[in-house]
Automatic annotation (TrEMBL):
The chain crosses the membrane at residues 6-31, 43-68, 74-94, 115-139, 151-177. It is found in: Cell membrane. InterPro entries: LeuE-type. It comes from Micromonospora musae. Signal peptide: none annotated. It holds the Pfam family LysE. It is a multi-pass membrane protein. This is LysE family translocator. Keywords: Cell membrane, Membrane, Transmembrane, Transmembrane helix.
Amino acid sequence: MLGLSAAALAGYLAAIVVLMLTPGPDMMFVLANAARYGARAGVVAALGVAAGEAVHVTAVVCGLAAAISASPVLFTVIRWAGAAYLVLLGVRALRSAGGPAIATDGADARPGRAFLRGLVTNLLNPKMILFSVAFLPQFVSPASGDVTAQLVLLGALFVAVQLTVDIALGVGAGRLAGRLADGRWARRINRICAVAFVALGLRLATSS
């Protein structure tokens, strides 16, 4: 496949599966939406996150991500914007933690809102920029064929695995929240995600 060996592709897939299962802003956002608004919201949030990652992959292919990561000022602006957004998500989640187990009304329950927030959460994560720049090219071999085509393939696989994992988490969390009638599990997950958002935002703001 485009000159890439089966062993290289298998190693790449294994690496991104492990990475996708590591808790981070994207996973927390999907879980929070699924616990609060149901499985459908979790799936839509996962689609938004995947769309953001597709933008990152496109930027890598076009060379934009390398330019951003090489600009200290621009990278710092993105880092602070991402940190502020994560803290904002955490505060909003804490404020809504005392509500009903599954909310079905209000602006925040609309599918479009979950998609947009998932997209922004991923785009404002500067570590995804660095990750995309540093990770994807490691599996590209100029001797194996067109470099751009290899990057597109590897990026598509990355987005597909991320989408699969996040959808599975969103559907599972949403269904479990719906079955627990008292809502304690959903509110507990919501609080955990809220604290995680704030902690991740503060960590991002203070990281070098």
